[in-house]
Amino acid sequence: MNERIPLVDLRAQYESIRPAIDAAMERVIERAGFIMGPEVRAFEETFAAECGVAHCVGVSSGTAALTLALRALGVGAGHEVITVAHTFIATAEAICAVGARPVFVDIDPHHYTLDPAQLSAAITPATRAVIPVHLYGQPADMEQIGEIAAAYGLAVIEDAAQAHAATWRQRKVGGLGHMACFSFYPGKNLGAFGDAGAITTNDPALAEQVRLLRNHGRRDKYLHEQVGYGERLDTLQAAILAAKLPHLPAWTAARRRLAARYSRLLAGCGVTLPAVASGVEPAWHLYVIRTPRRDALLAHLQQYGVEAGVHYPIPLHLQPAFAQLGLRAGALPVTEAVAATCLSLPLYPEMSDAQQDRVVGLVRQFHTASAQAVHTPGAEPARV
Q: Three-state SS string across the chain, please?
C-alpha cells in the first residue's frame, strides 16, 4: 500500500506545536473576548515587526485585505488596476468589489510574476494602482514595478498572500509598496484555523483608514464616521497566529532546504525547475515544476498516493467571471503556457527526506518511461 503524501500536512504542523495552540485558544475562550480582543493588537504588533513595517491591521481574510487596501487608497468606479491573470481569483475579485476594472498583463516566463516590461503599455488615464503578486512565494520585481508606478503616480499594493517571510534584496515583503496584503488561510506558510488576513503599511493614514473600514467605519461603538465593513480579524484566529508566528523562521528555513533539495534531485529529469530571481529569497509556499505532460504526470503521482496540485489551471482572463473584459486565448501567451504546464509538488516544513525521495523517484520514473516510449519506434505508449 502506498503511503499518502499530502500537498501540505496541517495535522503534522498542529501536532508539533499543540500545547501552544491549545493554550492560546483556551485563554481567549476563558476570557470570552471573541471580537477585537487584546490578542488581535498583540498579533498585529508582532507581525508588523516580522515584516519590518510600522503598521499591521488584521482583517477577516486575504480577500478582505485586498478589498480594504483598494478602498483605503480611494480606488473605485471608473478606475483601473493592473495585475496578473496567473493568480487566485481573489486578486481580481477585490478590484471588482470596489467597482474598478482589472487590467491583466503577462508574467515573466522565468519567475511567473508580473512582467515589468508589460506594465507601461497597460497604463491609461484611468489607472490608479498596480497589484504585483508574489506568486508561489517569490517576490515580484519591485524595483522596476516601483519605478514605473512612481513615474505615473500609481499606488503599489503587494499581494503577499503566498509570501510570508520572503525577502527581496534583504527586505521582507510587506513593506515594498504602499500597502501589502496577506492571507492566513490554513494552508498558507503562516495559517490560521479558518479565514484570516492582514494589511501592512508604513503609512499611518492608510493604516488608520483600514482600521475604520474593517470595523463598520467607527472608532467608538455607535459613532460611524463612514460606511465600512464587518471585516475584523477574529480574536481566536489572532491568538492561533500569534502562537505560530515564532515558528515561522524555522518553517521558512525548512521550506528553503526542501526546495533546494528538490532542485538538486530533479536536475536533468526532463522537467522545468523553478528559477529564483537575483537578490530574492523565496518563501516557497509552493514548489512548482513545469512539463508539457503535466496532466499525465499528475495522474501518475496521484496513482501512488502523492497529492500534487495545479496552481492555477485556468488563467483569470479566460474565466467566465471575467468574460466581460473581452480577452481571448492567446491574449497572454506566457500566462497561458505556464497555466497549461505547471505542477505543484508536495512541500511543507514537516516533510521528511524519505517522503521527498519518493516524490522525486516517481517523477523520475515517469520521465524515464516517457523517454523510452518516445525513443522506441512503434512502441505502445508508456503506462506510467
A: CCCCECCCCHHHHHHHCHHHHHHHHHHHHHHCCCECCHHHHHHHHHHHHHHCCCEEEEECCHHHHHHHHHHHCCCCCCCEEEEECCCCCHHHHHHHHCCCEEEEECECCCCCCECHHHHHHHCCCCEEEECCECHHHCCCCHHHHHHHHHHHCCEEEEECCCCCCCEECCEECCCCCCEEEEECCCCCCCCCCCCCEEEEECCHHHHHHHHHHHECCEEECCEECCCCCECECEHHHHHHHHHHHHHHHHHHHHHHHHHHHHHHHHCCCCCECCCCCCCEECCCCCEEEECCCHHHHHHHHHHCCECCECCCCCCHHHCHHHHHHCCCCCCCHHHHHHHHHEEEECCCCCCCHHHHHHHHHHHHHHHHHHHHHHCCCCCCCCCC
Q: Per residue in 159-213, pLDDT tens? A: 999 999 999 999 999 999 999 999 999 999 999 999 999 999 999 999 999 999 9
10-246 maps to CATH 1.10.230.10: no
Q: What CATH code is assigned to 248-374? A: 3.90.1150.10
Domain definitions of the chain by residue range: 10-246, 248-374
Whether 10-246 shares its CATH topology with 248-374 is answered no
Q: Considering the entire predicted model, what is its pTM?
A: 0.95
